[in-house]
Structures are given as structure tokens and as C-alpha cells.
Amino acid sequence: MATAKEKTVGWQRVFRYKRKKCEKEEKCEMKKAYRFGYNLYFTDKAFAENLEFVKKNVGIIDEITLFAEYSHHGYWPLEWQKESAKVLKERMEKYREAGVKSVGVNVLSTVGHLDESFDVLAKPPMQTMVGDDGSVSRSCPCINSEEYLDYITRRYALIAESKPSFIWIDDDFRIPRHGVKNPCFCPKCVADFSAEYGEVFDRETLVRAIGRDEKVRRAFDAFRRSIYTALAKEIEKAIHAVDGSIKIGFMTTPEWKEKEWIEQFKATMLRPGGGFYQDDVPDDLIRKGFDVGLQIAMYPETADDIQYEFENFPYQEFAKSQTAIRTECALSLLYGCNGILFNAFIGSYQRLMDTIKGRSRQWDRIADVSQNGKNRGIFGNRAACLAFAKIGVPLAVCADDACALVLCGEDADKMSNGQIIDALAKGVLIDGEAFQKLSARGFSRYCGVEVENVYDNGMSERFTASRFNGQFAGYKRDVYMNFWDMEKKVYTYRVKDGCEVLCDLENINHEKKGAACTVYRNELGGRVCVMGYFFPEFFRCREKQTQLMNVLDYLSGGMPAKCYGDCKTHICCRESEGKTLIGVINCSLDADAELFAEVKGNFETVSRIETDGQVVAIGYERTKTGVKVKIRDLAPFEYALFLCEEK
Ligand SMILES: [Zn+2]
Predict the structure, then answer these.
(1) How far is the CA of 154 from the centre of ligand 1 (A)?
(2) How far is the CA of 255 from the centre of ligand 1 (A)?
(3) Is residue 293 over pLDDT 80?
(4) Domains plus CATH for the chain?
(5) Given pLDDT bands bounded at 50, 70 and 90, which one contains residue 616?
């Protein structure tokens, strides 16, 4: 926590924060961790260079992780591991002598990520993964054999003997993608599943049964999952049998959902993944930030060390600008990480170290304020959330923290009737296809509309004079583009009493066809917006942005925050007790765009967190529900940070 000393400079009240020392509260500083590949430490010459680089930058190095291997290939002979572990041990001791307290190992290949270097490296001397099409992996062992279990537990024990502070299990600990399609259908996996299920299959008959029978598919998924669960326990035992103090880390992916693996590993370090390797499409960093947040939302509270994986794989300095790096890292903290693992070194990348040094105090402050916080905003359909995220609507990473829900397409198919009623009793935005699904299940009475007509070409929408459209009444927008969406349909609705019409569908000859976007307060007390078209396309314009923000404000009883102005923008809203931390990204190439951020709450002070971590009170405007801040001259893809504090 921080203490503030106030002084007056001109019209601004300036706060200078003095940081408390963090010995006890580990979380109040961001962990700066670095991962070095085998080729950076294995030979004496390479290691000497790397050690010098580490010594030069030791002030901003909290932790070093060494990759155990140098390929994603899945089999590493024990003799090789034994020799390699000796080198690991020696290198880790040297880093510790240089002043880096926490040094450990990342096992890149427990199962193997893909078929790689299979003609060059040792062939797995055991059954390898078999795809549902019968293809056989050349790199990745099937994990369901005694030979593999013996090999992998002995290998982890050898690594544990090198005295690492921690061991990371990489994200190849996953069911899909091990060099073949949808593994594993090897003879033993098929036979074991047959015995468990009580029906005899071979690969072909099992694949057919899975394709036509949901019960078999679910049972086979559970079978595969349980093999990994058992393996996680064996790996934990192998490590802790050598040394119970070694921490275990586990890397997850956006498709990960097996929470029990964390428990079986006894993992206290976690690393959410997502893959953002270059900034050619810079706003993809928002997608990764959100994906990371979604994973963190599923982590147990026992995980106190959550490291974002920063990558420019395959280690290209020019793959990312320093601007994108700064913003990507800050965003990862705003979505709940409290450390960053930098995996970007093929040599001495000093420019990156200088970037980290330049922002490290500011990032510490984000980690400090956002610990125990939650991301507030809309939640639901992932594609729609990501589209909203680029017009200044904040995102939540779980339903509990959502101010409104967005349902598109087939989303409702995955919901029970009870869940749908719950959603309709709150604030929910529904697209045309999702409404069709809800209507077929008898929920249209809560939405205020019934389908009247359906069209598949030649339509636009016209904004009505509704209060939600303000100055943009009469605006016309294409909702249907035959260029990209040949199969999609748009709808007009018959509306109930009390249902407000925000847009009418109109054909391109300007003939009005009927209501196409409505808002309704239902008998459950819920507020529902039904769109006659599909989401989330073509709303990167200020007219639609304004309307949608007004709608979302109504559905949610006031969004926790929003950002709007001259360009594409992302806003992140991290709430903790009495404080709201706001991050705004200029997602355009314009340095002169004017943006406004509004934050809901009864705030006493609004401050800007400067790049050096200083917290400086700024001027703001009061609104009916909170505060409004003007943001000018934010460089392309740079971010600004605001801290709103209650009394
Ligand atoms: Zn198998």
C-alpha cells in the first residue's frame, strides 16, 4: 500500500507516493522473470556472455528460468538429461552468486509440442501419439504406457536433483496437438478405453462411434483427461520426492479447462498463454490480454505467482516494437498477472532490458493496485467481446463480474433454461441468431419482440429518434454485407407494448421494413436489447459506438467505465476495494486523437500513473455517475493509466 504526501503545484494537486518495502507483501511488485534457452547457457563461452548480460541488468532481474531442452521434440534420453542436469546445477549456482535469488528450470517438452527435429534427435523408444486418422507422431510419446511413465518421472527427478527453486511444466501438457490430429488413438489407449467403457473398439470403430454418439465422445474425452490427471500427480511426486521445497509451475492455454491438473501438480506458479508473437496486427495484444484474463479467472486462490509469457518467438528482435512491448506488458498486469516472464533472448537484447527498466516502477504500481482486483465490464460471446473491446467497452473475464451479458449465434445452446432466465433477469444483449434460438425455447416473452420477417440481402438499418441515439437519429448503417456473410440472415420484429425501437430495418431503396433493434424491460426486472442482425460486425464508427454505449449503460445500470473519442480504443477497468484502475490504449496510428474516459463511482481523487510510477492528481469533470477524464496526445498504441480513489 502507498502513503501520500500532498503538496500544491499551481492548479494541480500533486501526490507523491512513497512505496513501502515489499519484504512481506510479495505481490506489491511485479516479478520480472527471464527465460534463457539452452544455447544461451550450455557451452562455457555462451554462458560467460549470458552471465555478463545478467550481471549488467541484475537490478531488474527477479528470476531466471532455464529451458531444459532446445527443441519441442518430445523425447530426451535420460543419459542426456543426467549430463545436462549437471550443467543446469552449475549454471543456476552462478546466477545465484550474481545476485539472482530465484533460479529454476522450464521443462519445454513433457509430452512434446509437435513433430520437430525427429530425424536429428533421439527417437522415442516407446509408443508415440496416434491421431484419429491413424497418423503416428514421430516426436511425441503417448503418455499412457509404463515405459513413458518410468521415463518421464525419472527425467523430472534428474532435473529436481539440479536444485532448481522451481520447475515449470510447459503447455505441451495438454490433450490436443502432439504432431497428429486429435490424439491419442494408439492400440493401448483404444484398448484401455474399450475396457473402461465396456465395449470393444478398434481405432476406426471408436472414431465412428465418437462421431455419431455424444455419450461415447464424452466418455473418451473424460478418459483422455484422466490419463493426464494421473500423470500430473506422478510428476509432482517425482519432483517432491527429491526436494519438497521445489515450487511447481504450470502453463495453461486458452483451450485449457482442466482445473484438477493444477491441484495434482500442486502448482503455485501459473502462466496463462495465448500466443502473440509479433505486432503486425498490433491490436491482437488485446485478444491475448483478454484470453489471459479468462484463464486467470479459473485459477485457484493458492496461485500467488501468475506470470505473463512475453514472447517474440522465434526470437526476432524486430517482431515487436518497444511501444507494443510496453503496452502488451502493462495490459497483462491489468488483466491479473503479477509477473512477466520475458522469453525473447537469442543473445543480449539490451534494448528490451532498457524498456523494462523504463517502465518497471509503473508496472510495479499496476501490480500493487490491481492485486485482488477484478476486471469489470461486459462478458459473454468471445468474438463480440473482442469487437466491443476495440470501441472502448471494458470486458469482464467471468460472468460474476459482468455488468451485462452478450449472447450471439449458438451461445444460448450451451445454457440451461435456468441460466437463461438468470441472464434475462439482468442486462443482456442478444443478436438475431441467438434470439431465434431463445425464441424457439419459449423465451421471447422476456425479450419484448417476436420475429416478423427474415431477409438475406439488400438491407440496412436506420437509427430512430430514440433517446438511445441522441444526435445520431436518422443515421443509416449497412448491417448486411453480402461480401462476407452470404448465409446470414437479418430479422424484423413485432414489438410488445413498452418495447423501444432503436433501429428500423430498411432496404437499400429506403423502404422501411420494421423494427430491427429494440430495448425492453421485462417482468423479471431484466433489461434486454435484441438486435435483428448478427454481431459483432461493422460498428467501428462513432454513431454505432454511441448508441451501443447508451444501450449498455441502460442494460447494466451504468457501465463501470467507457472510452470514446476520435479513434479505435481499448479500456481496461480493474476494480479493487475503493480503487478503480483504468488503462486506456490508443488503438490507432494517430498521435493527435482526442479521447475521453468515463468511470463510474464516488471518487475523491483521480490521478495519472506516470511512466516512472509517480502518481499525479489530475483535473477531471464530474458526471452524474462518476468522473470523466480527457486524454490527449496519446501516441499510437501507447497507454495511459488512471487511478480513481474513493475517500
Ligand atoms: Zn496412446
Answers:
(1) 20
(2) 21
(3) yes
(4) 377-559 (3.40.50.880)
(5) very high
